[in-house]
Amino acid sequence: MGIFQLGLRHLNYEDIGPGRPILLIHGFTNYGMSWAPQLAALVHSGHRVILPDLYGHGASSPATGICTISDLAGDMVNLLDHLGVGSVIVCGLSLGGMVALQMAVDQPNRFSSIVVANSRSWFTGPENSAMVDAWIDLLMQKDGPLKRLHATWPTLVNDEFRESAQGRASFDAWARVLSTVQGFSLCHVARGMTQFDLRGRLAAIRVPTLVISGEHDRLFSLDQSREISGHIAGSRCSMISGAGHLSSLDSPDQFNRVLLDFLGG
After folding, report:
1. 2-264 falls under which CATH superfamily?
2. CA dihedral 35, 251, 148, 94 (to 10 degrees)
């Protein structure tokens, strides 16, 4: 485990393996090691895997004020500089996909390729603000992060995975992490998400890009993935059959095949 100090706050991260660096960015309320199902496949295919806990998440410092997608993207660039990483592959899921897109738009020459999974290119507007308000109402309750996990878990993964031993173990691991995270910290990140809008800027991305969607993603639809892909020249859009929102978790074999095929190409 590594700790990167950023002024008065810190970011927790894992840096595993030699080779071609890839930065994996997790989703909202999640943590870096949620990418464990991808770790062995990537390391054994010759990649150095960097797994941060975003600000306000996991073992990183709690967010003490509104934290935007741009703020999170800046943190990731600073972490890469700290690690001496130049050109890098960035892969993000959900919130992490938004961060990956922001990084690619802000610093288009920094990334060799981009993978955006189960995400979208904007999160503004009254409908999304209302969704975030509902998240915050739950997060600010006693044990709010855990309550939100219990409430959203059925919408995050497919039924087969949720009912499996692996699914129960994944839920328990996430719950242990969330038992240490303050609800107010996640609320600050949620508020920042409502400012995210890259429509009209995605055409600036000129590197190979893969957009992944889950067939049964009930949060971010296939159409939203296609919207991203449609604005990035030469990008590829892949749907993972049977997958829910956390396609890397509930359908890791398919996810890894799609990811490695793209990286190998």
Report:
1. Alpha/Beta hydrolase fold, catalytic domain (3.40.50.1820)
2. 60
